[in-house]
Amino acid sequence: ETVRRIMIDAGFWIPRKLRPPKVHQPRNRRACLGELVQIDGSDHRWFEDRAPACTLLVYVDDATGRLMQLLFVPSESTPAYFTATRAYIERHGKPMTFYSDKAGIFRVNARDNAEGRGYTQFGRALFELNIDILCANSSPAKGRVERMNGTLQDRLVKELRLRGISAMAAANAFAPRFMVDFNARFAKVPRSDFDAHRPLRGDEDLARIFCWREWRKVSQS
């Protein structure tokens, strides 16, 4: 503590609370639809005081800002992302890359796994589908989906209130119609007309891929 105080007085150390906020340079959008899709879960009182808080899984295309998938779930979990991602692929095809945070759903964060080897259940499913996943180092790095969360917490909450929707099932049924209207008004035109989504191969069974798997050893005794 004495050394730290001397460094502060000499101007070599700035306490964290006095440091200026980091300014993150905005990243250029990707060129193609489906080239990079940002994903996140937004915990919020989506139904205000009409129902308990829940989580909205949000998938946003980086090139266009289009809402690609919305799913209301009780909380962020691997099964929830399995369901949402399977629905995404069935509707749009396979994107090139998903961009997420470093939550344990997406990345093995164990200390004894410092080299980053191994996959989570979600990561393993994407590997089998030849879909890359990138994990952002900070929330501003995936700013498009973070800003979308804030927008939805305003616009979507009001739409749900106007329609008297107070349950996740009804909200999920309404979500496709909301996305169509939202994208028609706010989505950007991509720099390239090429759609980077890929169709499923004949041997890619989503029901088999999006399931929980664990290795077990069978004893001979």
From TrEMBL:
Residues 22-207 form the Integrase catalytic domain. InterPro entries: Integrase_cat-core (IPR001584), ISNCY_transpos (IPR047797), RNaseH-like_sf (IPR012337), RNaseH_sf (IPR036397). One of its GO terms (biological process) is DNA integration. Gene3D superfamilies: Ribonuclease H-like superfamily/Ribonuclease H. GO terms for molecular function: nucleic acid binding. PROSITE patterns: INTEGRASE. PANTHER family: INTEGRASE PROTEIN (PTHR35004:SF7), TRANSPOSASE RV3428C-RELATED (PTHR35004). NCBIfam families: transpos_ISNCY_2 (NF033594). This is ISNCY family transposase. It comes from Cupriavidus necator.
